[in-house]
Amino acid sequence: MPNQSHLRGGFCNPGFLRLVLVLVGICLVGYLMGHPLNWRSRQNLARQSSCPPCVCDCSSEAIFSLPSDCGKNDPDMNEELEKDIIDLLSEELSLQKNVTNDNMQHTRASILEARKTSSQYQKEAEKCNAGMETCEEAREKAEAALIAERKLSALWEKRARENGWKDLRRTYL
């Protein structure tokens, strides 16, 4: 039995291991609890430094309406707002037409590919059927030849027995 005195003291002491595990647990809990708080405080600091305070007049009657100067300085927004409803609808229709045309081209290409694949499978099936017919004809010919050969063998065996031949194979069976 080996000397186990080193297990009773030092690093392998159960009390020491518990202490280490408790300290690791406390550190993990502190990290997990402190990390979200630290992230929120950084986020609040970033908001305060990059964004001016919002001035809202909530006493007005139209709560859900946009301010009148919304998008006033945005050239893209101004261009969109100035367009007539008919222009917007015609633009929407032309976009829909383009999407439909693209879908039709894709569908036609898919149909053409399916037809090619179907034609190839049809040709392979026809080859297989022709091969099966050839095999069936050869089997029928071989069967007819076997029947004729058996008849001829039976005739020769009959003649041989009439001339006194005895089948030695049957005596051993």
Order of helices and strands: HHHHH
Strand content: under 5%
Distance separating the two termini: 77 Å
Strand tally: 0
Largest sheet: none
Task: Name the structural class.
Answer: mainly alpha
- Spans where pLDDT lies below 50 across 5 or more residues: none
Walk me through the topology:
Layout: H1 5-8, H2 14-50, H3 75-82, H4 85-162, H5 169-172
Keywords: Membrane, Transmembrane, Transmembrane helix
Pfam families: DUF1068
Protein name: Transmembrane protein
Detailed description of the structure:
This protein is 76% helix and 0% strand. It contains five helices and no strands. The protein has a domain at 79-163. The radius of gyration is 48 Å and the shape is flat. It is an all-alpha fold.
Question: What attributes characterize this protein structure?
Answer:
Transmembrane protein, transmembrane, mainly alpha, transmembrane helix, single chain, flat, DUF1068, 173 residues, 76% helix
Précis, in short:
This protein has 173 residues and is mainly alpha-helical.
